[in-house]
Design goal:
single chain, alpha+beta, Arc Repressor Mutant, subunit A, 7-stranded antiparallel β-sheet, 4-stranded antiparallel β-sheet, globular, transcription regulation, PchR_regulatory_protein, Homeodomain-like_sf
Length: about 325
Amino acid sequence: MSLDNLIPPGGMTPSDLVRLGAEFALGVEPIDMAPQVLETPIYTGRLLAHEVQQGLMLSAGDVTYISDQSFAVEMEPALVCGIMLSGDPVRTEVEGYGSFVRQPHQVNLMGFDRPIRYTTPLERGRNFRTAGFVLQSTFFDRFGDDMDDDGISALRELMTGGFRTAAITHSPRVGEIARHCLDHPYGGHLGRLFLESNALAYVIEVAQTLKDERRLLALLGRREYDRVVHAREILDGDLVNTPTTLELARRVGINVTTLQSNFKAAFGRTIFAHVREQRLMMARILLQEYRLSVAEAGRRVGFSRPSAFSAAYRKHFGHPPRSEHR
């Protein structure tokens, strides 16, 4: 196919370019960017691993172990970040540096400036859904020394001083990005572009969250920060039977006024606004995956009037709830 023969005399419009791309697509076999299904003597399930940019590797997995194993990994200097979307707590032993525990729904970071070896015991029958990324020094090199205000410096710091770890106890946005690594509808070059964009969004979100946590620790102190994080975990743990503010304050050992003030300082919204946002996200799942009607989804998440639910949904997501059924 000659490109010259496809160009109209008056030049090409955007529609012509799209049409030309469609014609070329007919002769190209799409690249499979979905997680690969694997059956091994050690585990069974799906795994994904792609270097989406120089120095940035994206990985994800949904695997079940079929035998007891001691899983050992040797790595060159890097920053490893991951979140366990489902599964039980896992203890990892790092040679020469002790051990640390990875908790479900917790973002774990592990940085080291020298080669290391770490071991994780895995039990038969245990299933893990995880997604994360690995950053090497070549990724940070492109930023030079000008990283004071973009949050990336918080990640780079973890690759200094031998071996260092950090944990972000809760981040709904990171969880959402991580799930997209495993489950997305794209293939071919569009899938490659999506995974690259998703990986960069993952890095940026983790960097900003880590930076915000450090700022809040300096503002509130460790004790008050842990209490307000605990309060949010209680709310998110049972969005159907949400406790009152007074009950929540009692459970975390703080008075109501201080809890409300610290919650707003830590998360940028009131307790009520946080619960409403989480319930709207729950409503989106009810609409998309369970195909509930708009009125029923709104009722399930606490709205007495469909019109109020639709208005709140549109304001939060930028489109009406009925569009989720398309």
